Here is the input.
Amino acid sequence: MNPLDILKRTPKTNCGECGYPACLAFAANVARSGEDPEKCPYINLEGLDMSAQEKTGLEEKGREHDLQLIQHLKEKIAPMDLSNAAQPLGAFWSPKDSDILSFPYLGQKVQLGKKNIFLDGREPEDPRDQILLYNYVHSGGGREPDGNWIGLESLPNSISKIRTLKVYCEDRLADLFTGKTTQDIISLCNRIPSRLDNESSASVAVFFQVLPMLPQYILFWKEEPEDGFAAKVKILFDHHVLDFLDLESLVFSAERLTDRLSFLADCNS
Ligand code: SF4
Here is the structure.
């Protein structure tokens, strides 16, 4: 597939909602790196008859791109002294396994080495988990979370990610929680390391520990049909969050939290 074939199907407004600064960059990544064309909410895919071979080719390119990024991140952390990195990241390090850091990730046990990562003893299926975890370690830590919460829109250069967070996380969570009792939502959230906020005016408000230094605060308001309000979720981050993750991985971490809650809800039903 040619990038120009994709570009023609976008409105060419360079709005950035797909996560790319311009439609051309998005089109090039769809054609060459296996980016999901549906990340542009305005794209017209009608009549785009991608053969199974083309779809597989795109998926392979996407995977290849992720694997190259993992390799690059491994090279970046290779010179790091993990014993020094452990404390600022809230990780555990032991001289017995001097090339391994251990820490929790959404209730799973991460063992991150300079060559491999294991999640609950298995290699992560999705390479994006590895990208997120290597990025976290590569940050080397920073200012600890201090309870000052902000929306993604308050972080620099985040405009292109706001819609991604809304569509892939906040709207999905609002759908997931709608129809459940408050107690059921709390029980679901409790299956991941989390703490209820009893002071909030939201219907349910929960602090999740995604990574040791990466809390996320989820607020859920139930729908109020009499007042015309639909159910809504807002995800907030600590104001120092970019000390630990870049924006791309940050939004992916919220997506992973959403995936995990959806998975646990499915297991319950
Ligand atoms: S979402 Fe991306 S591809 Fe779609 S119009 Fe906006 S910048 Fe262009």
Q: What stands out?
A: Residues 260 and 266 are 10 Å apart (CA to CA).
